[in-house]
Amino acid sequence: MLMNPPYGGHEDASVKGYFPDDLASSETADLFMSVIMYRLKQSGRAAVILPDGFLFGNDNAKLGIKKKLLDSFNLHTIIRMPGSVFAPYTSITTNILFFDNTRPTESVWYYRLDMPEGYKHFSKTKPMKLEHFQPVIAWWDDRKEIVEDGWDKAKKFSADEIRENNYNLDLCGFPHEEEEILPADELIENYKERRAYFNTKIDDILATIESMLEEKV
Predict the structure, then answer these.
(1) CATH number, domain with residue 149
(2) Which residues are registered as beta bridge partners of 151?
């Protein structure tokens, strides 16, 4: 199963009602993850593109989804993608999660794919190409932990380490952000995308608070 679900979207409370309480989220990407896990057959394999927010998110739904992902599936690899992969459509940084329905997770390998030499950012005229993914392909069958300039580029973490860290999957990230000078139209589009993303996050938090208040009434 290959999936690049929409993210940043906000679903109505009526949609959440179709999901178990511990997995019910108002965020579109979270709901897609729940459906993917539900539909993935025994021994099935999946690769799903998700934003950084899923990795470090600690609201009840995201924690429930990540707990189920580790306890019921084998999340074996997370590839941290460089920024602007989907520019100019979105500036949100993304990741590819590889997992299968074979056994519970024992350990998770991370690989940080850096921006290729000669690129400051991707764009519609300079998109990411398959050749830029070659470092991952070369590493995949000969996995080794890699440290560059004192930062982890490739590293394996046990499932217990992740559980002890409250299911935070935001590991082996980029050590710093490089300044990007974009054309005016791309800069405006990026700003709109980021504003929409944070507005959605605020709506999610408010919806969670309202739901908690309604339960107490």
Answers:
(1) 3.40.50.150
(2) 148
